[in-house]
Design goal:
The chain has about 180 residues and is mostly beta strands. It has 1 helix and 13 strands, in the order αβββββββββββββ.
């Protein structure tokens, strides 16, 4: 009996202290609005991308990355109310990709710095990835920046996915969910 009580008091608080919030969960119609596409055409490039729901109700981010005209990135971004990520510790994302490397990105309102973490996909296989907030690195205009302020999760107002780093050609990323872990 004492062992049971010990396990009860050890395990139960762990479950209570960890909370999560669905930021994207397409099967529950969460995270389907306020998306926009930002590609290298804002600087003269010719990469293309789109974002849509497939028949399985997962988000598809796909297109073609071109290096012509000094291009080389495609991204999708979802805006949300500032403050919902206050004190977030990490993110869990479930994706199926094409074997390429993508970036998970967060951004504060009206800031040119974003906070990014790379993740590698496996071709046609679902993977779940945990990205801790302290793993997100500040980036400015596609380059890591040591001069940027520390990430303030309370000010984050968008998240997104990007492909870059000279990975030219067609790409396809299927997104089942993104959860914020507190």
């Amino acid at each position: 009996m004492n062992n049971f009580l010990y396990l009860y008091f050890l395990i139960i608080p762990l479950g209570i202290s960890s909370q999560n919030k669905d930021l994207i969960n397409t099967s529950n119609n969460i995270g389907l609005e306020n998306w926009r596409i930002v590609n290298d055409d804002v600087m003269g490039g010719i990469s293309t991308s789109e974002l849509y729901l497939n028949n399985d109700k997962n988000l598809i981010f796909n297109g073609n990355l071109s290096l012509e005209n000094n291009g080389g990135f495609a991204s999708s971004r979802m805006g949300f109310e500032k403050g919902i990520l206050k004190e977030v510790k990490s993110f869990k994302i479930k994706v199926k990709g094409d074997g390429k490397t993508y970036k998970f990105r967060l951004r504060e309102n009206y800031r040119s710095t974003n906070y990014s973490s790379d993740f590698k996909t496996l071709k046609n296989k679902w993977i779940e990835i945990e990205i801790k907030t302290n793993q997100l690195k500040p980036m400015f205009m596609g380059y890591y920046s040591n001069r940027s302020p520390k990430l303030n999760t309370e000010k984050i107002s968008s998240l997104g996915f990007q492909i870059s780093d000279k990975q030219k050609g067609n790409f396809n990323l299927e997104i089942m969910y993104v959860k914020a872990i507190y």
